[in-house]
Structure formats: C-alpha cells, structure tokens
Amino acid sequence: MSIYALIDIQTNIVVNTIVLEDGTGWQPPDGLLLVKCVEVCGIGWEYKDGEFIQPDY
C-alpha cells in the first residue's frame, strides 16, 4: 500500500491524499491526476516539475 496525491490538473494543487494498493489500476476522476507520494505531500501542496512543494502559510 502507498500514499497517492490527487492533483487538480488546472491548478496543480493537491486536493486529496489516498491510500491505494499498488497495481490496482484505479483511475482518478476526470480533471485529477494521481501521483505517488514518495516522500511527504499533503492537501494544499503544489505539484510542479515532478516535485511536491509545501505552501508558505
């Protein structure tokens, strides 16, 4: 099992994180991108150039 981020493809912002069993083939709803969180990521973080960026608030 791994943690994945659901990213809004228009804003590149993480809108949710979920736990999935690797290799299940689950696909996110339209408008969202599924990316494995290799290190740390969370809701509100930006996804840019293959990296998660923590917000400054």
General description of the model:
This protein is mainly beta and 57 residues long. The chain has no helices and 5 strands. The strands form 2 sheets. It has a 3-stranded antiparallel beta sheet, with no helix packed on it. It has a two-stranded antiparallel ribbon with strand order 4-5. The mean pLDDT is 95.
First-residue to last-residue Cα separation:
30 Å
The 3D shape can be described as: globular
Strand order of the largest sheet: 2-1-3
State the secondary-structure class.
mainly beta
Mean pLDDT: 95
Largest sheet: 3 strands, antiparallel
Which helices and strands occur, and which strands form pairs?
Blueprint: E1 2-8, E2 13-20, E3 32-36, E4 46-48, E5 51-53
Antiparallel strand pairs: 1-2, 1-3, 4-5
Summed up:
This protein has 57 residues and is mostly beta strands.
Record keyword descriptors for this entry.
57 residues; mainly beta; globular; 0% helix; 5 strands; two-stranded antiparallel ribbon
